[in-house]
Amino acid sequence: MKKAELPENETARQKSLESMGILTSVADPELDRITRVAQRIFGSEIVAISLLDNDRQFFKSNINQPSSETPRDISFCGHVILGDTAFVVEDAQQDERFHDNPLVTGIPNVRAYAGVPLSNPDGYKIGALCVVDTQTRQFSQEDLQILEDLGHWAETAIALRYGSRTPQQVLDDLDPAKHDMLIDPETRTWNDVGMREFLHRELINARLKHSTIAIYRFEIDDHERLASTYGNDTLKRIVQAIASATKSSLRDRDVVGRVDECGFACLMPNVRQEQTSFLGFKLCDTVREQCRFTDMNGDPVRITVSVGATWAEPEAKQHFKSNEILEFAAAAMEQAKSEGIENVVYRALPVPAETA
């Protein structure tokens, strides 16, 4: 048996697959529809849409596959993701790569196999759509073209599933290790790494749905003075209050995260460019009105933030990485802070040279 080699970009491929959250998400009726159509067309006994995880092949949708997953090192689909076109085995018993494979010598007794690679919106091959028979057979060029067309349908369905989950659903799907890596423990919001990953996800979603996104960076005004006057414990409670207030004021599709000690980022999909500054001022209003503190004498302590804002069109992912956009918003925030307190500064992303 010849085990499939790992792709050269395996580490990045695996990270991209994990970030999608589809390994643990619920079954997708659209993928089941695709496998049913494939079975009707090909008449194959087994049809599956598989995802190649670290050490397993997980079947996201399948017909007559006897288990929900198999070891990756015996999978046929592991070979599929190494290429760009259909991978065909007409008689596995006569193929030196597979003749002694457990999937051939035992259940499900694979003889003929045809699979096409499935790519995610990042361009990584994450799995395969395959048809499998227990009798030898040949596949025509027309058969393979149909299989590729069904594969493109599956890619679209997976991409839409990837972009349809709310931030809370993404959070609920995180495994413990990923949770610790992406979530700020004090505010229970996304941290710097989490916000960069989430913006990357939203930029993909914006391109798929031809939508837009407003990006904000904001920071507590005079936080050094607050810490020296009232102590770090009070500043910590202020940070937590701001996180709670902004989360409760946002829509389900919006997301906020703590990206440094006293700074936050906020992402708002489907915002028009002319709304961007106005919504920045709404963030200021939310903090000022909902984050109320008093000192030891019972006197109110005014808590404000300054905001930097920018806006991304659907094609922004072609020209900017998520960390570049967040840094651009941070530069706008620094300008806002330099001009006083509770300011909002909007900066448009620069026009890429090739489109200028």
From TrEMBL:
Q: What is its EC number?
A: 2.7.7.65
Q: Which SMART domains match?
A: GAF, GGDEF
Domain (GGDEF): give its ranges: 211-349
Where does the chain cross the membrane?
Answer: none
Q: Which InterPro entries match?
A: GAF, GAF-like_dom_sf, GGDEF_dom, Nucleotide_cyclase, Rev_trsase/Diguanyl_cyclase
The EC class name is transferase
Q: Name one Pfam family in it.
A: GGDEF
From the UniProt record, which GO molecular function terms apply? diguanylate cyclase activity
Q: What residue range is the signal peptide?
A: none
Keywords for the protein's UniProt record, in alphabetical order: Nucleotidyltransferase, Transferase
PROSITE patterns named among the record's database cross-references: GGDEF (PS50887)
Record's PANTHER family? GAF DOMAIN-CONTAINING PROTEIN, SLR1143 PROTEIN
Stated name of the protein: Diguanylate cyclase
Q: Which organism is it from?
A: Thalassospira aquimaris
